[in-house]
Amino acid sequence: MKLSSALSLFAVLGGVSAFAPTPAGRQVATHINQSSNQNPFGNAASLEYTGGTDANNKNYSKLSEKLNEADIERRKIAEEAERRERAAEIRREERLAKIQYMKDMPENQPAGTVDEFMFKEGVQDQLDKLDNDLVGLLAVKRRVKEIAALLVLDKMRRKLGFETSVPSLHMSFTGAPGTGKTTVAVRMGQILAKMGYARRGHVVLATRDDLVGQYVGHTAPKTKEMIKKAMGGVLLVDEAYYLYNAANDRDYGQESIEILLNVMENNQDDLVVAVAGYKDRMDKFFSYIPGMMSRIGNHIDFPNYSSDELVQIAAVMARDLEYDITPEAYTTFQRYIEARMELPFFSNARTVRNAMDRARMNSAIRTFEKYAIQGYNGGECTVDDLKNISAEDFQILLDDILNADVDKRIFG
Question: Which terminal CB of the chain, N or C, has fewer other CB atoms within 10 Å?
């Protein structure tokens, strides 16, 4: 009892001393006013959020910031919906205006002449060049003119306001080498450019080596690079059947084909894909890849040239190179062509081009020997000597076939 009374008295005296006046000259530490920490609660962590030291704090943010971001996102969604609704309304108004325009249009409204569009757009010029550059191939030229007619009439309809759509212009060229497939592809690209169906109208020639890679991840970049080069024109895939290897289901060519199919479907307004090769092999290729067959709307077969047509091709080449072939030389050349057609690896116009190159070389050797070595006419030759290709220049080619061993005749 006495101990508890003593403790109570000590506590009272201590509390009273806290309110007693401070003696002069004595300083008392006032931590609240003199400390650099303005927190009245001492050195404990402040209630204000400063991010803390936890590494996961970067995943959190202030509630006000989250609300502001959500508000911005809602505004964007609302603006996008309003934009789509306005665009749909504009399309409806244009559609109604077009319907009314078509109703008000008289039946005898002049649309212009076909010839006017053919000449104005330069289509007729390209068709004339096709006739001038290619001998024969009447069926091919007729098919090209049919496609050109569709494009011309489609543009005339568009001018009057009729509904139009880009026709399927992807093509398949089948035939032996040297039958003019590349030449027709070039002319078609230029016609498409003239009519506004291709931005550039150029032709990019590609083979399997240009499209298919040698290891995983290499094919897609190669194929897309070739497609990028051909955009705005024509991508001509020569011997396209080599893209697919039926004996190897892990062949990388399948990836290239899938990319081409996707581009043919989604970018047909900016790229025309033409596949070329031998007819029997192309038919087998299409049986393996039916998606390719269904995307190609124009199948053009290029027949082999006759011997008479090949002689005409030689005349065209001589005309372009400014050479004169004598009538006797044409007779000898036709005998050579008929013999060469019976041998393997005959390539139509390419064989003619090779024969013309050899005949020019033979003519040059003959002229050089006559004037430079033998000194005929003091070594001075005439213009006719420089332009002339004679029968003996082609006779050398014919003799190479007739006199060579059987296994060497194909090189004649």
Answer: N
